[in-house]
Specification:
Helices cover 23% and strands 34% of the residues. It is of the alpha+beta class. The protein folds into two domains: 57 residues, no CATH class; 54 residues, no CATH class. It is globular, with a radius of gyration of 19 Å. Keywords: Signal. This is C-type lectin domain-containing protein. Pfam families: Lectin_C.
């Protein structure tokens, strides 16, 4: 009896969501970059932040259209949450910093281009997976980055 109770207690401490994985949602409603950011922050976590080639492929598989907003803007190029971008996937000749091209969008070729932020594009939002922890008879929901800290 005691061993089963201990097992059940520890098995409820953290659920089985893969740590560090984000979930992405394609939004088929064209908005400006700023309006897309506001939407994502209201209903998800933020505009998509792409940290590596695997995430880039995952995100692009969700939607195929000419340009889709990601959470990158400049200058210098930073993610919507103001973190720096260590992974980039710019199209050849991009970013060209032409005129008012201060926001990044992903194109059909899985590459990024700088685009005028007032252009209305579809966009991706991401949501950090929540980790459920049982402590002191209360459930706590934390994002993976919060849990690591």
């Amino acid at each position: 009896g005691k061993i089963l109770l201990i097992f059940l207690y520890f098995s409820s401490i953290v659920d089985t969501n893969p740590p560090g994985k984000r979930t992405y949602t394609a939004i088929n409603n064209p908005l400006t970059w700023k309006d897309a950011q506001t939407y994502c922050r209201t209903y998800h976590t933020d505009l998509a932040m792409i940290d590596n080639a695997e995430e880039n492929a995952d995100v692009m598989s969700l939607m195929s259209t000419q340009y889709v907003w990601i959470g990158l803007y400049r200058e210098p190029w930073r993610w919507s949450d103001n973190s720096s971008s260590s992974f980039t996937n710019w199209q050849s000749g991009q970013p060209n910093n032409y005129d008012s091209d201060y926001c990044a969008a992903e194109s059909l070729g899985h590459v990024w281009a700088d685009v005028n932020c007032d252009t209305k594009c579809f966009f991706w939002c991401y949501k950090d997976l929540k980790i459920s922890c049982f402590k002191d008879d209360l459930w706590h929901h934390m994002s993976w980055p919060d849990l690591k800290n």
